[in-house]
Amino acid sequence: MSDRLSLWQHFLARPNDDRSKIFGVAVLVALVCAIIVSLTSISLKPLQDANFAALRAARMAAMLDTLPGMRDVMEEAGIDTLDSRLVDLTTGTFVEDADVAAFDPRAAKSDPAQSVAILPEKDIAGLRRRANLAPVFLLERQGEVLLLVLPVSGAGYQSTLHAMLALDPDLRTIAALTITEQGETPGLGARIEDPSWQALWAGKEAVDEAGNIVVTVVRGQATTPFEIDGITGATITSNGVANMVRFWLGDDGFGPFLKRLRQEGL
Hints:
Low-confidence stretches: none
Shape: elongated
Number of domains: 2
Strand content: 15-25%
Mean pLDDT: 85
Helix content: 25-40%
Order of helices and strands: HHHEEHEEEEEEHEEHH
Distance between the termini: 69 Å
Number of helices: 7
Radius of gyration: 24 Å
């Protein structure tokens, strides 16, 4: 212990312009700062997670309020929130007795044991990996789906986009799209959060009768039931939202689950 103390005193006694002392002090400061940042991040993570969960819940509630008559249907059914379930994306089946609240989709996506790599030619959403399981939110009555809400994500221009995609009972028509998280350029790509742009998605045809995913964002004015006006000056972000929706409705996303629901119901 005395030898260590002697070395420390010898180090401090060196001239302030000594290169070894300057380098040593810089390393010590960086190490202390890294420890402080790490401890702060770990201690604040539960609070951050709670805030994100509250924000998602608030935005889902706001989305439900935009759907005509949805609150009346929920009141009639005697419920005040959607039923949350976990789905195996490969088989399209529900995971029985799963604790949805304890499932972390982002952590699962980063864990090779809980996720799969997406082939580059299929990765139109720019995700690289996809978790094996995913939560879904349902409003159902006597086995009939009245509303299905799917959490979706994908690459934008400079951030990962997260959204809630609500489908009508036919599971082909978009009831609503709500962006829940984005870090795009303010005044440009960030306009995907504008209620007026998100409202353009309601009633659009996402999947045709043959099962083809047809929803898309176009430049200029939309002219068909499956087109949405793009955002001027934010083409990459607009296309990112469209690609995100298309990916998650496809075979590598919720496609097997949606197909099973159409064939078998709940």
